[in-house]
Specification:
Distance between the termini: 48 Å
Helix content: 10-25%
Order of helices and strands: HHEEHEEHEEHEEH
Number of domains: 2
Shape: globular
Structural class: alpha+beta
Number of strands: 8
Largest sheet: 4 strands, antiparallel
CATH topology of the largest domain: Dna Ligase, domain 1
Length: 176
């Protein structure tokens, strides 16, 4: 006879792939990223908020906040693009799960489809050449960690993946 199993609800889903991400401890979130000071507006809907940059990033990863949403700090009057806010980008770097669908390739600028980047994650060999669009789709699918490094072929230096303007531009094309 099998013992009764008690189901305990999980707060965060476990990462089920073998990766250095699953072994790494979660970094503490900066206080400015958890302060509920942002309002989010999706075209055709009502503004939501105040919410934190961390909540916005987690909503994006869960597919509930599209990357083309607008945000406004509670102390400001005007709305701006979500991915133009440094705190949201910083929060995205700290979030690892992703379920937002990939963007429609018909809306992607042709320059974002050129395979001109090498991607490093962990201590392994680089992956590539890949395009900014492929990197953005990998981030949204949870296969490219937000702390990966990218280097344009022929350039001397590598940068954080979310510091590369072409990757941010490719992420902006995602709509739900």
């Amino acid at each position: 006879m099998k013992p009764a199993v008690t189901v305990v609800p999980k707060i965060r889903p476990r990462i089920r792939r073998e990766s250095f991400l699953a072994l790494r401890a979660t970094a503490p979130v900066a206080p400015r990223l958890v302060a509920p000071v942002w309002h989010v507006w999706i075209e055709g809907g009502e503004p939501v908020g105040p919410v934190s940059a961390d909540q916005i990033a987690r909503g994006m990863r869960a597919g509930k906040v599209p990357s083309d949403a607008s945000v406004r700090h509670e102390s400001e009057t005007f709305w701006t693009d979500l991915l133009d806010i440094p705190d949201v980008i910083a929060a995205l770097k700290s979030v690892s799960e992703e379920s937002e669908p990939p963007p429609s390739e018909s809306r992607i600028a042709p320059s974002l489809l050129v395979r001109e980047f090498m991607v490093w994650f962990g201590d392994g060999d680089p992956v590539g050449p890949v395009s900014a669009d492929q990197i953005a789709r990998g981030i949204r699918a949870g296969k490219v960690p937000t702390d990966a490094n990218v280097q344009r072929i022929g350039d001397l230096f590598a940068f954080d993946v979310l510091d590369e303007p072409d990757v941010i531009a490719a992420l902006k094309f995602a709509t739900t």
